[in-house]
Amino acid sequence: MKKIEGKKEKSVKTKKVNKGVVIGATVAGIAVCAVAGYFGGNALRNNKINKQALNYINMDEKVSTIYCSGKNIKLSQEAYSMIKDEGLDLVVSNDKFIERIASENVEQKFDIVLNTTSNANFEEAYDISIGNAGVKELKIRLNSNKEYFSEFIGEEFITNKVVVEDGLANIQMKDDTTVYTLAYIVPKEIVLEDVKVNKGASKDIEMGIDKKDYTFGSVELKANTDTGIEIDGFKIKGIEVGEYILTAVMPNGNKEAKVMVEPSVEKIDLDKLSVELFRNDNTTINATFTPDNAVNKALEWKSTNEGIATVDENGTITGVAEGTCEIICTTKDEPKVSATAQVEVKARPYVSQVWSGPQVTGITYVNGIMLVNKTHPIPADYAPGLDPTAYDAFLKLRADAAAAGFDIQLLSGYRSYSLQSQLYTNYCNTYGQAAADTFSARPGTSEHQTGLAMDVGWIDDAYGDTPSGQWLAANCYKYGFILRYLQGKESITGYKYEPWHIRYVGPVAEDIYRSGLCLEEYLGVLN
Ligand SMILES: [Zn+2]
User: Rounded to whole angstroms, how far apart are CA atoms 195 and 259?
Assistant: First the structure.
């Protein structure tokens, strides 16, 4: 590897290179990119001062690639000499191309493209200008074995970095004793825009660039308040709600902008701090805010365990499986404020509420619910007639259905043993017993004999697809009814889907409905 010891004498003397935040701002304004790569490019495109660039400079990190805007990069005389004398390569690129200029061609190249700068702050620097697209990247290749100077960190150079002096960003390489200035980047005049910041939140002040080749020595942010906002370099923090003036103090005229500190959420109160719910059930938590006029009321909701309960963007929690977890809501915008609710998802109770009618010997009841099916018959002499409670419930259902625009009439209610016997015999004669068994109960096994079952609406498979049938399916639980023979449960109930057959069970209907189970499954009687 070629040493560049000889250059040390020629190199720029190490200067004072730290000017605190002022340095950061200026360099950030010209969009410098560090190892991480791309933000400099973004800053370049957006013409905005960039937070990462600022951090990068302040952290004194290494430069591997330097992005700079437009035509405003100037190769220092030292670097120019170094490239020529030491046989280093220079790589210049823009969005369209990358050009590697071998040391022996640098002079020739620069004869064409370099002009001595007129900037008074330093002498004998050169504008690098390749075409109209401008320079995007500048790398110095140290020799033919090693690619770019950034790869020499730890060998030849300790630090490669960009600093600002006299209003110019210097792209520097530094070893133990000497700083080599490779190039200068000329920042332009800044633009300061009005900004809103939430009380308690911080915001980086971005400064745009609007004037080519304007050089300034320093920028400092000040405000017309000691208590309204806090300034830390180029970051401001809202302290008190109000409107203030932010000034970017520069040698050649200040820039002013308004800062609005807006009220922000200081506290979130939830209307439920502890939620118990069953699997598949849901409940919504509502939040209120202090102060009420906070501007950042938008919340993000999160479950600590989505396998137990999920939560949507409206704070609606759905039980997934038994267990406990927490639901946490947090303000989307700074300052971050959170509130937490405990959630316990419980197993759906076997029977939460039962309808307890009189129990009759010879009839199966499970937790008070009468069960009648092909394997659980009722005595032939059980003849209660239509249950008055069930009928009253039906009348209410019918009235509400009518109000909703649906005409749901009772087509068949109570059937005695002997009537069922006649029906069944007729069906057997017409369709054969096997077919009859799929839709007609054998005498003694019909729910209609209990006085609790009703055929309503329209006795047709298509009824379930009609608006009326859908209203019935979705609402009958409110009146204590369940759809007794569900689609997909034929092998359990023993009957095909009957969207018209409802069975009165009382208040437990809601629980059965929400479980999605048929009555046999719900009662755990599957034989
Ligand atoms: Zn029926």
Answer: 5
DSSP states of 182-201: EEEE---EEEE--EEEEBT-
Long-range contacts of 310-315 (CB under 8 A, 24+ apart): 314/284, 315/284, 315/285, 315/286, 315/287
Q: Which residues have their alpha-adjacent CB atom under 5 A from ion ligand 1?
A: 455, 501
Contacts of 364 (CB under 8 A, 6+ apart): 370, 371, 372, 376, 525
**pTM exceeds cut of 0.70:** no
- Rounded Cα distance between 51 and 25, Å, is 9
Query: Residues 148-162: pLDDT tens digits?
Result: 333 222 222 323 344
Q: How would you class 88 by CB atoms within 10 Å of its CB: exposed for 0-12, middle for 13-18, buried for 19 or more?
A: buried
> Which 3 state secondary structure label does DSSP give 525?
coil
Catalytic residue among 137, 206, 447, 498: 498
Element (H, E) at 173: strand 168-174
State both tokens at 526. 């599957």
Active-site annotation holds for 498: yes
